[in-house]
Amino acid sequence: ILYNINVMESSEGTFLYRHPAVEKLKSAGKELGLPKAGLRLRLGLAALMGVMHGRGEVGVSGEDNLIEAAKRAKEEGRGLVIVSSHESGLDVPTASYLASLVGKTSIGIASTNGDWIKEGVGGFNPEPIQYVLTGRENFIPVPYKWTDRKNKKPVPFTEDDYKEAVERVKDGEILVMAGFSDHESVEHRKIGSAAAHIALEAGVEILP
What we know:
208 residues, two-stranded parallel ribbon, alpha/beta, five-stranded parallel sheet
């Protein structure tokens, strides 16, 4: 598995939990002294990385870009927005894990992920379990709706949908969101604009 935060020379592949980039990000987080990500989120993401990546080798690149962006954000007294791809279920959680090593992190998710019962179409949805375990306050819903029991699609949003996200980023949080979803369950798979709107409204840097 090759995972890129950004386009840079790739570090040597190794198990994620002992990757040099992970240690570098942890050290940077301590040095910057930024507010820490919630304990439940940190533990949950670390455990998830073990399940998702297993003992396979992982290549990480772009860690210096994240560290430098975090430094600039601290100087400005604000947070930043990280935009991840979403070609698989690995992308957003991995970006979120790496971001959480640096500072307090929140994660944008499809609002439908938080539905115990799939609104409008019926059926039980087990996804909210993971958010309960890792702290629902660490997740920011992006407006989606169910089209049937297996599929969902993004819906138009207003500024009111993102007031909380904007305020949290202004207060110094790192927000991780998918800029594009290529998952087969998502209809109308186009590049999203939510992350850009939030970054512009909050006046913070956006990091791909």
